[in-house]
Specification:
alpha/beta; Spore Coat Polysaccharide Biosynthesis Protein SpsA, Chain A; eight-stranded mixed β-sheet; two-stranded antiparallel ribbon; 16 helices; 12 strands; about 50% helix; Cell wall biogenesis glycosyltransferase; Nucleotide-diphossugar_trans
Length: about 400
């Protein structure tokens, strides 16, 4: 039967009827007359030659309601940028590729650095931030979706369901978070969300008691999903992390800036699979190990702004509570997998839990050692205040890159 249950304090929009994508797109075409729509695609050059992005572009070619597609391109030299322009030129929608490693955007980045406003590190957060700036600068869209470029199971219904809540003029949502079942190849995936974030939120409640922010975060069915949509005014003040805390940071900003009835989550896919990160037990600078540390720090920083005080004893208690809760979740997920004819390796699950428990302590120590750390990229409203013509500079840099290297649409 359909699951219409509303959990937590955030509205959940379910997929109850398997409504056809053609029907949803017909609505969206009408919505676009009042709320022009756009899509942001943060991409690595390597994804252009991978198995997922070519299929995503094929699906996007059929989307009739988008007014703009903004692609942020990372880790590309000039030859690769030219290749990217050719790759994306099959898109019928107005689109631009931000060459983040090109001389023009590097020059702008250096200018921002003079004011201490540039992103501190490379990565998805930086890429998304510049794309958001371009969306503001172009002024072509009112409702914007963002999704990753490594989705192996992509079809255009995902985009339709993701952007619908912020595109419908009758809805008052400013932000929508996508969720989906992380099941593929007969296995339950999504280890960091299942085995770190949810048990960590429950452990934080056990240690500190009921806190509205924790209830807010625990309301999201897949808090680490890289797919979300928003109204354009969200972009002016949002501050996002440049590390793996991006998704947690975005949700935290939504909690800070908007009342709960302006936010929702939507079921956007029956199946979802993408490239998987290695656990990286021996390397805190990569894989799921770095991801888990960054996520923990993002949660600690936000709770500190809520007046929560942390010390070494707190983190030891938190680790112990987390460890017990997470191990109980391993049994829960194992039983769920067996009942559905799926596989779940208890040994590997518990190895992940052990690593995450260790990384809670590492993240806690880093938090205590560097209390003035500033992982957030400033909001664009602050950047404009410091450099009034920055939007014009960003827009012109992107347009000149696209013109110079042969793309004129």
């Amino acid at each position: 039967m359909g699951d219409f249950y509303q959990n937590g304090i955030i509205t959940t929009l379910h997929n109850l009827s398997r409504r056809s994508v053609d029907s949803m797109e017909a609505d969206l075409v009408e919505f676009a007359k009042k709320r022009p729509m756009g899509l942001v695609l943060p991409s690595l050059f390597s994804e252009i030659t991978g198995p997922a992005l070519p299929k995503i572009v094929e699906e996007l070619q059929q989307v009739p309601y988008l007014n703009e597609i903004v692609i942020g391109l990372d880790r590309a030299d000039e030859k690769q940028y030219r290749h990217a322009l050719e790759f994306f030129c099959t898109l019928p929608q107005h689109h631009r590729v931000l060459w983040n490693d090109g001389p023009r955007l590097k020059k702008l980045d250096a200018e921002l650095s003079r004011f201490d406003l540039a992103p501190k590190e490379m990565g998805k957060g930086r890429n998304v931030w510049y794309c958001m700036g371009y969306v503001l600068a172009s002024g072509r869209t009112e409702s914007i979706a963002l999704h990753d470029c490594d989705i192996l199971t992509y079809d255009r219904s995902l985009l339709a369901r993701l952007i619908y809540p912020v595109a419908n003029p009758r809805f008052n949502y400013e932000f929508c978070k996508g969720f989906y079942a992380r099941v593929a190849d007969g296995k339950i995936n999504g280890r960091v969300s299942r085995l770190l974030v949810t048990p960590m939120l429950r452990a934080l409640k056990k240690v500190f008691g009921e806190i509205e922010y924790l209830s807010f975060m625990d309301s999201f069915r897949y808090p680490l999903a890289g797919e979300f949509s928003f109204r354009r005014d969200v972009l002016t003040d949002i501050r996002i992390p440049s590390d793996w805390g991006l998704e947690i940071g975005v949700l935290s900003e939504m909690y800070r800036n908007y009342s709960n009835n302006r936010l929702c989550q939507a079921d956007i896919a029956d199946t979802y699979d993408h490239k998987h990160q290695v656990l990286s037990e021996d390397n805190d600078a990569g894989g799921l190990s770095k991801m888990s540390i960054d996520i923990c720090k993002a949660l600690f920083r936000k709770l500190a702004t809520q007046g929560i005080t942390f010390n070494a004893e707190t983190f030891r208690s938190l680790k112990a509570s987390y460890y017990r809760i997470a191990l109980d979740f391993v049994e829960t997920y194992h039983n769920d997998a067996v009942m559905n004819g799926l596989t779940l390796d208890i040994h590997h699950e518990e190895k992940a839990v052990e690593l995450f428990a260790q990384n809670i302590m590492k993240a806690g120590q880093a938090f205590l050692d560097r209390p003035m750390e500033r992982p957030f990229i400033p909001g664009w409203s602050r950047v404009v205040s410091a450099i009034p013509d920055v939007m014009e500079q960003l827009y012109d840099a992107v347009e000149q890159d696209n013109r110079e290297f042969g793309y004129t649409r």
